[in-house]
Design a protein that fits this description.
This protein has 261 residues and is of the alpha/beta class. The protein contains 8 helices and 7 strands, in the order βαβαβαβαβαβαααβ. Strands 3-2-1-4-5-6-7 form a 7-stranded parallel beta sheet, with helices on both faces. The two termini are 35 Å apart. It binds NADP nicotinamide-adenine-dinucleotide phosphate. The site of NADP nicotinamide-adenine-dinucleotide phosphate (NAP) has 30 residues, from α1, α4 and α6.
């Protein structure tokens, strides 16, 4: 067990990649907090984890709300005595061609996908600093790392808001690694390629999903799209002590995307 006695919070873990991540960390012995805006999803995932014999609690939280995050951290530390791992995974998309993108599309994506990371790390930092130990992983995206825009890959929409937020996550990670490193905290980011989840399937028609998968398969050297477990395993590595000398890095888990190699 690589995470025995560790305590981990995963935001957005009611669905998709976050759910795979929280399950993988729990499998390795971590006590986990399923933190998501969707209360029903939180209860379902906690139920599944408990059924599998894991230690899990749920917390319904909006990463845009500092006071809720403060409560999330205090409740977690109160219950388990510490917070070792934070995975900032919650995210939303509002894909739209740039010329028709409105303020609301821009604001919600920047608020959840970028500002939410800022808020979560500020909320957890005091606990990790006190322990002189912490592992933070921020989920970025191939879209924030030079991957071809969604407008060119089997989908009519553009993603300027999302690409800007996810690029911001990469640079935020580097600055956080610099400022928190002296306190014994490692901060890294993971940039997933395309993985079929509720986020990537519900923002497209079925035909667009199929076209997008074909385009994405062709644009990786491994000729396949990713699985949630691919991301979960990469996060597990970065939060484990096997990665204790790694900080400020971006791990691209995208099958070798040729559009940014
Ligand atoms: P997903 O299936 O939609 O899961 C995201 C979860 O975050 C959902 O449960 C969602 O709840 C929750 N959430 C949304 N807003 C929130 C908020 N304000 N506070 C707390 N939780 C919130 O998406 P996913 O595909 O697993 O994506 C997970 C992360 O990976 C995101 O950051 C995404 O940008 C990134 N990513 C995904 C891919 C991919 O191909 N799937 C590729 C690159 C990066 P609701 O469902 O109620 O909104």
């Amino acid at each position: 067990m690589r995470l025995q006695d560790k305590v981990a919070i995963v935001t957005g873990s009611g669905s998709g990649l976050g759910k795979a991540i929280v399950k993988r960390l729990a499998e390795e012995g971590a006590s986990v907090v399923v933190a998501d805006i969707n209360a029903e999803a939180v209860a379902t995932v906690v139920g599944e984890l408990e059924k599998a014999g894991r230690t899990a609690v749920g917390f319904t939280v909006d990463v845009r709300d500092r006071s809720q995050l403060k409560e999330l951290m205090a409740t977690t530390a109160g219950k388990f005595g510490r917070i070792d791992i934070l995975v900032n995974n919650a995210g939303v998309t509002r894909h739209r061609p740039f010329l028709t993108m409105n303020d609301e599309d821009w604001n919600i994506v920047l608020a959840v996908d970028l500002k939410g990371v800022f808020f979560c790390v500020q909320a957890v930092a005091e606990y990790m600093i006190k322990q002189r130990y912490g592992k933070i992983v921020n989920i970025s995206s191939a879209s924030g790392n030079g991957g071809a825009s969604h407008a060119t890959a089997g989908s009519a929409a553009g993603n300027a808001n999302y690409a800007a937020a996810k690029a911001g996550v990469i640079q935020l990670t580097k600055t956080l690694a610099t400022e928190l490193g002296p306190h014994g905290i490692n901060v890294n980011s993971v940039a997933p390629g395309f993985i079929l989840t509720p986020m990537t399937s519900t923002s497209r028609t079925q035909q667009e999903v199929e076209e997008h998968i074909e385009v994405r398969k062709k644009s990786t050297v491994l000729k396949r799209v990713g699985k949630p477990e691919d991301i979960a395993n990469s996060v597990l590595f970065l939060v484990s002590d096997e990665a204790s000398f790694i900080s400020g890095q971006l791990l691209r888990v995208d099958g070798g995307r040729t559009d940014r190699m």
